[in-house]
Structures
1.
Amino acid sequence: MAIAIAVIVLAVGSVLFFFFSPWYLTPLASNWGAIDDTIQITLWVTGTVFLAVNLFLAYVIVRYRFNQRRRSQYDPENKSLEVWLTGITTLGIAGLLAPGLVVWASFVTPPEDAHEVEVVGQQWHWSFRFPGEDGRFGSAHNRFIDEHNPFGLIDDPAGQDDILITAPHLLLPVDRPVKMVLRSKDVLHNVKVANFRAKMDMVPGQTSYFWFTPTELGEYEIVCAQLCGIAHFAMRGRIEVVEQETFDAWLAERPTHAELADRAPGDPEAGEARYASCAACHGAEGQGNQVLNAPKLAGLDAWYLERQLELFRSGARGTHEDDSYGQQMRPFASMLPDRQAIADVAAYIETLPDQPLQASLDAGDPERGARRYRTCANCHGQQGQGIRATNGPRLAGMPDWYLERQLQNFRQGIRGRHREDPYGNQMIEMAQVLVDEQAVSDVVAYIMTLPQPSGEVAAVTSAAREE
Amino acid sequence: MADHGQHSVPHAPAGEFDDMELVHPKTFIGKYIWSQDAKVIAIQYGVTAIAIGLVALVLSILMRLQLGFPNTFSLIDPSSYLQYVTMHGMIMVVYLLTALFLGAFGNYLIPLMCGARDMAFPYLNMLSYWFYLAAVLILMASFFVPGGATGAGWTLYPPQAISPGTPGIDGGILLMFASLSVFIAGFTMGGLNYVVTVLQARTRGMTLMRLPLTIWGIFMATVMALLAFPALLVAILMMLCDMLLGTSFFMPEMLNLGEQSGHEGGSPLLYQHLFWFFGHPEVYIVALPAFGIVSDILATHARKNIFGYRMMVWAIIIIGVLSFVVWAHHMFVSGMNPYFGFLFATTTLIIAVPTAIKVYNWVLTLWRGNIRLTVPMLFAIGFIFTFVNGGLSGLFLGNVTVDVPLADTYFVVGHFHMVMAVAPVLVVFGAIYHWYPKITGRMMDDTLGKVHFWVTFLGTYAIFYPMHFMGFAGVPRRYYGYGETGYIADSMQTLNAFMSVAAIIVALVQLVFFYNLVRSYFHGREAGPNPWQATTLEWQTEHTPPRHGNFGAQLPVVYRWAYDYSVPGAKQDFLPQNMPPEAVEADDAAPRRSS
Amino acid sequence: MSMTVSLVFLAVLMAAFGGWLFSHSINVRPWEAQAAGVESRQMPRAATAPRVGLAVFLAVVTSLFALTISAYLMRQEMAHDWRPLAVPGLLWWNSACLVLGSVALQLAWRAARHEQPARLLRGLLAGGGLTIAFILGQALAWWQLQAAGHYLAANPANAFFFLLTALHAVHLLGGLFVWSRCLFRLQQGATPGAIRQSVELCALYWHFLLVVWGILFVLLLRT
């Protein structure tokens, strides 16, 4: 008897849960109301069947419960009943399938007037490409991807005006159908925005696509929906749906492939002069000064320095009220007038000799830290050498007091929460792996055991870069 | 315990079947370790599968701890989380459920229910188990190699399965490949046995249409597994070549964390096609034996014939065949040619019809029955409820358009746990309570059984039902944490914590089950040969538990199907399959109904 | 799409199975009790357990090769980097060896049926020897390809050539294991009648692998 009650309560409860629970589809922000409709239809049909079958089951359990004096009815088959049930089920299934197929037909056929955006997935980052004025994407291939050609563009005239967006932030004009052309640099990914409903895997070696029309202004999160490795959960991006004019203005400011290729590299000599104001705190050789809370700079890659200087300058870093040392850094970063100045000073810092450091803290256990570090190693490298492709800066040879403070800042959201700091956002996610202060100390202690380049080696590399 | 020398006595009718030469070793090791008796092999399979299943259960609890209480357990980092996900899935699907249903229940029940002395090839059967054990040990070893077990997800999709950024790309994935290959080799040996025994060694009168549905389910599942596992074998062989020999079957031009990998032109989708050509039938390899077993439990404990037996058999066959042409519904958003969506959505929804018919027939079997709410019956009812839920949510995912927003979300996780995890596991429990008296000669404790049922049934529903709503809300699966995701409501964290607590309770209550299992072996009530008053042949053996050779001097002769319960005109409540028509006592003047 | 190869195989298999089942279930009222007559024998007399076992095993192997061939065709379709491989002429000689090996085993089977130990031994030795020659020939073909710069990893066509021939050779090796046991038992003084069944299974298995090789060879020649 209890089982009959349980079946009734669960069946009815499940349906009520559907109506009263706060968890349901995210607000729709695209043209795919039809997908929601198919979900609704399926919900109604399956909900009805669910209730009908289970309530009948409960009725049967009660009505035909064991009775010593009664025998079961012996009926091996009932042709007409079976035919009826099969027929009704088939009808119900057809009723579900038909709308599904109709909507699918439009899902796979992008409208003629859809504009195209290429989404490039990589471990664990999104970037985007617009076809530019000619409306055609230049050919691209994973084979050609390197540090200077992150999109793998082939020497193709159509590609010169392609607009490249390396940050995982995309703007799209409202009410204009867009075809998302999907490509991957490494493993499988899946670009998903819950509110748009549409999504598709990105597969290396081929392109795939889906289309939709954003219908609501606003900001939407991109998440990765296909397991792509260790930082799958931290592979985020953002799509802002804006008015056409805003979009046009934004797009016009983005650099094309040709412009990026023409950009002058940082000039260390010009940077040397600018570095003078940095030297007061960070030291003449970029060796850092713990007393002034100025970290070591020598040994860091130019791309990382540039990014951080940009962040300080734009206020995406060093504006949190609890980040007092970051706040001190902001005015200095603001003294750099433009992108070129930043590139110059970063290029100069790269030439500074990288001296090995002694550990200043001893609270951590490097052995426990080694296990923690295996998460970090995926982006920052097994040796903590930093990996450009994953946007993970060098850690080995950096001062432990600075690493510890930054990790704490990430953990507490003091650094990296700003919306224009995507890699900081990612670090906030990843820093959650360090569940307490001890874990932070441990991993920092381990990083201090990683091989540090001797000054000589650093000098050779910087000389080689100058050439 | 002297061995019964049945094999020396000729069994009737002479000359119709070749008598089997059974190996009757005298030593303990020969009888219980290197045994060729299908029943002993079944127990070996069962114990090993449940042991490895417990490992997978612990892994699931670790995952739930991370999801329910993020940033609390320093043991669990993203690598280990993905390793838990992967190993939990692979163990549960292949090493627990497939091995348990086919290796354990198949070995125990096929010879007994078909009226055979043993499997057709006992030596091969024994080898099958030892291969399985080796596969399990290799799999366990992968936890202990540098880099740990693979974390590529149980689907082992390339490129990520063998490229940097995924845990366990050194030893872990290699051991996974090795373990699966050994498993497949071992399973093929066992599978040959199951199929040949059902085809070849049925006793006199046991026509195909008199086979209990349990045998139909296990038989069809074995046929499917034999044909589907080669797809997995080919796929992992090719991936192994890509990994070790530098070929490019699946690996395209791509980067390994910024470095060119050197592969060229391979197609990750090719792997997915091969994998799901195995993977989808695998779902039914787990489900069909459960379908069969639950049918027999329902009929026995409702004292009623199974409703629409022929339809049930054909539904099993049709589901089995159709399951080979639906594989790409796992790939609707995989980037394959989207036009396949039309085809595969259609075949997928067609398969819902025979599946629905099975559900109707189960409920109609209970209808007008005389339902004894024994523990096996409770589990069977729990199965129906859970399976209806899981089956219906399948209609969302099979219908290509509806799948798009729900794919790779917790909706999928909820769906497949309902339909191919909880539902079959409830049947496993029901089956253990049902056949335990035959296996050990003692009944399991009823009260403990009920506690186990209620907590498991309600608890699993509490874990997996809410997952569907997380899926609607777009929560992606295989995420280590949701920390900063804005569109995911904070209340979801409360829900996650609730589900985790439920999971821990369900896991703990399994201890009650194990306690019951062990205690009943020593202190359980004596069961007698046929405590459930069932008709099938395993309950008609001379000894309980049956000895090597299963039946007495003579193999039983079968006169009727397996579902003669409450036959009109017969005085007996049930007529065993081997009861000759003459032995049926007339109840009253009412003539035997024939329709 | 290329998965059709596997699907056709499955369809044929399932149709045969379904038809057989249908003939057993149509007009059967399972709920009617009746004594089983002599006609209730479940399988034809010729379908002994080992034969049925072999048939099922061959179905599994067919599935394996069908799927590999499907993968081969699919990979060829999907890729732009497929450079067909010039199949070494040596394969013709190898094929001849395998055909003769199959014939020899057939003769051995016949000898076993007719209790002719000497001919049985000759047949077995010839069959096994020719098969070993085939496998060595395949290995030589591999070596030739390597020497000519057609490395395994250089091109998917090469990779598939190596994969398919290796899979086939592994199955022959498995057969040779059973073959060697037959030979051993014969040496130990077993009568031809005692090993008839093993010889028969070997012969059937060899014929099957010959057919598989024929299909693979045609496939490799054509693409």
Note: Confidence is low (pLDDT under 50) at residues 1-17, 591-595 of chain B.
2.
Amino acid sequence: MTSQSHRLKTGGHIDRSKAISFRFDGRAYTGFAGDTLASALLANGVMLVGRSFKYHRPRGIFTAGIEEPNALVTMRSGARHEPNLPATKIELYDGLEAFSQNRWPSLKHDAMSFVDLFSKAFAAGFYYKTFIGPTQGSWMLYEKFIRKAAGMGDPTTQPDPDRYEKANAFCDLLVVGSGASGLASAITAGRAGLRVILVEDDAVPGGSLLAAANDPKSAGWLTAALAELAALPNVKVMTRTCAFGAYDAMTFALLERVSDHQKVPAPHQPRQRYWRVRAERAILATGMIERPIVFGNNDLPGVMLASAARTYANRHAVAPGKRVVVFTNNDTAYAAARDLRAAGADVAVVDARARISAALAAQTTAAGIAVHLGCAVGRANGGRHVRSVDLVPIDLRNPQRSRIRQRLACDLLAVSGGWTPTLQLLGQRGSKPVYDEKTAMLAAGKIPEGFDIAGGAAGEFDLTAKIESGVRAGLAAAAACDQAQAAQGRSLLEGLPAGTTTFNIEPLWLVPHPLNTRPKKRFVDLQHDVGADDIELAHREGYVSVEHLKRYTTLGMANDQGKTSNLNALGIMAGIRGRPIGEVGTTTFRPPFRPVSIGALTGPETGLHFRPIRRSPMHDWHLAQGAAITTTGLWQRAWYFPRPGESKSDAYIRETAKVRQSVGLTDVSSLGKIDIQGPDAAEFLNRVYVNGFLTLPVGRARYGVMLRPDGIVMDDGTTSRISEHHYFMTTTTAGAGKVMSHLEYLLQTAWTDLRVHVTSVTGQWAGMAVAGPRSRELLEKVITDIDFSDDALPFMGVCHGHAGDIPVRVLRISFSGERAYEVYAAAGYGQELWQRFHDQGKSCDLVVYGVEALGALRIEKGHVAGGELEGRTTLADLGLGKMASTRKPFLGSALMQRQGLTDPLRPQLVGLELAASEGTLRAGAILCDPATRYSRSFANGSPTLVNNASGASARDFTPGNGSGHMGHGIGFVSSVTYSPELKRNIALGFLSGGMARKGEQIDAVSPLNGELTKVRVTSPHFVDPEGERLHG
Amino acid sequence: MADIRSALGSVYKAGPLGTPRDFPGVTLQEQSPRNLIQLSGWPDSFGAICESIAARLGIRVPVDCLTVTTHDDVSILRVGPTRLWFVCGASSARVRAFTETLGAGDAVTTEIGHSRTVLRITGSEARTVLNRGLPIDLDDRAFPENVFAQSVIHHIPVLVHRLPSSDGPAFDVYVSREYAVSFWEWLVEAAAPLGGRILESA
């Protein structure tokens, strides 16, 4: 374990009583509560923390915040292993384990660092230029090597052990950022009674106040502000929370890092929480991000932003360097210089400006800091750490290459090239920032309705100005929310001196290479290794638009999204083009502002809860009986009920056979059920279904098919007439929601004159089918007050009765082709009724069957279901063309006559069976005409494919994965099963020519499986085509 | 009459919930099966139906959609401009007797009591747990007592009714029966970090 060699003896917002142990690359260190991983590493003198993305150059800690481009590390191990996290945003906790990335075998000695020597070969556009033309195919060879050589950390492939939450919140005012202006906004709006949510990405509120020198007045102001906020019950402060997205209707996306500051989440606690916040107003008090100046070797460890150096010194009590050079073009870096000097460092300022104010000069000199005016850092020197900088004279009005004037030894180079207000959330709402020449900033453009900005985001530097702008924005929000009578409180400026902070920037984007030296790389985007040379190259090759520049060079595309690089790139491009920056344009901001884990976006919607599950009222019974469960849409349905040692095939074949021999019971609760009532219900149904419903008598059911308006079949089912104005419709399981929406849509838009109400009663009714020759016998045992004779309850009859004390509705309808009944009871009685059937069924040789047997029975009978009603088929395709009434119009009746839908060559429903004793029938197989098959010919001494019918030859393709067929075929197989009744495999399918091809032998091709199976066309009614068993 | 089987029969277990706390964050309780009768009318005659309800049953029909009136053990939820839900206890027979006097031209009724599982959520964190999934503002000003909303939680359709309560916020959540177990599992997981208790079914 190492000592904290760079820790200052006093100061900082850290708790020195709480020492924290952590490991980096396996080595043990200590820090204090209040440290980030970055500050703790710096405190221990660790400057090298990673290798760069492309060139494997050594990199250190560059910033102290969310904008960090360099210090990306992998956190934790095992299933919690997570790559690419900025060390500057990782709170230190006991037992923290972090690893550097993109290096092998070690960070210090990275074997891939030789790539840097060949960097000219890997400039922007490398992929586009290299893997094109004759060498295009080599990409497949080199891809894996390139991906291994370049990149960031690797994710784990283990399942995430943590839980994540989603949450919704609502407020009058959302304040983003808790610096001085954000606090002032929240307090002002809170005093006025607004419901305020204040979000802060950091672990503690305060923003840049935490990075300032320990000035008693500003510290006292912060303490008082936080105390007042805590006392306001209508203000909620959310720390460790980042507002990463702004969307329509003032909706914001927030990521709360609930447990990331702990080794593992506490029991029941999520790791992260994804918030959706709906706000009436929003104030962005998001501050500014300092930007660097681009010069040679500007990526060396030990080069960091001046604001970061100041933060480490003041907030974390760390001296990031002992001999410091501050390189700047504006006044703000002088505060960092003074604070670092106060922390005990030797400090020199290199200022590119020719002159500074007398007051600033006097203040700096008094602090014992040397100032080099009219100079720039031409390049930094060092290996794995900066050791010195070479100064060159510079004229900011016309920067030119010049000789090195002086070398300054240093171990820290703090850079400030100006500031960029953090306006990404405004940009996400379509508000493009505009370049302000005076401040060399991208300032807010048109501010969208509902938004306001305050503090640094509005370009303010001085504490009092920030507070004033926060108060103004808070008052404006209160007025906009009809809380114009703002409650009174002490002045938030009370006790603070008038502001004296100055900025006085003179822009400098890129320092020319010093004369008579070998040019060093000058990085613009540190995270993606994009240099000034890449921008110049992009310009030479015509990618002068900002959007093209971004995509060609990948500048600003990594997980820091160019927070420190975008404006420098604009400045450099503008310089090359000789145009003002405002004319060059800005890139588009899109969510997220910071990387968001997929786990947080997913929340609890994983595994079985990926989507909610629907369960039948008898679901528990099925599970208790050992049923295998299958998923049908959102429903969990009993698939089959295996006996010990039975496979799926064994079980469903037994169940299917038993239904036809005696009686079976199956759960049909998932069928859609719709209650239709009203004086115009019959007319409504008559319009919806293709067949007539006006004449359906009370007490009878009718099979119906409904079309979409475009003439394609939508769904089928039975509808029963319960009383004169009351109908009970059933739909397919999959079609239930679709049909219900369809009916409501028609009643609310097309046919508002019809007095009809529809209600989904799918959950109200448990449904069970009793099918088989002995079904009537079983029903008579369970339901004793209904006459089940054919005269009293004929096929398609409907009646009501009781199974003991349970009211039931009975429909005599059949999906299996056997005598069968559907019995419905209120859902809460479903399992009890099922149990009664099961108990009484023992004497009837009852079998309980699942959806696999249900499917086998209906295929044997040739009934269509989901495989056939798949959104492309017409009535005629299904062999149901004669159902369509010619005496009335119905929905879809016009467009079903379209030329394309009446084409006689459309595939039509047929039965299929294996032509030979062996082979595999697969649903989805493509039906092909054997006459159009290609076969291999060696007539000319080389293999050629010859069409069997036309004799045409083809080369250079492998039709149908070797089947000899190509194209879309002449139909497809829709459903398959093994028929216990016929003791062979059978299928339903659609075939061009339909039943006219009965008896023909066809090829069924499954390219995915590389199979070709000979099948014979037959009737789709495999069992009991005359329908005699319905009455058996 | 056979007992009505709860949709939560296999998963409902009374006892402490999640993180132990000094005060109950959330209390969950399944409510006894409700008689839930839906009455749907037509614009031209619905006013008269409402007057008839007031005269015959002694309950004022809510004027605004998404609001509730209650008298004795009958609550009326106005779920649409011309659609009401009668949530009844022992008075269901009286309500049914009334609805049977209506012709199809006046209004139609549908029994839907078995299609809903009702869960009561109370406690200081009741709003918090609901807002883990419910995109509705539950603040007093936006969602006062005897207001309800129809929305989705975890993709599951729900009706959330804020009950009159002098003991902190209280909500009844109506969930489609076939989704009840899925919703319950979501609810328990969402409530666990807040701590609380699952009470015996009412």
Note: The mean pLDDT of chain B is 95.
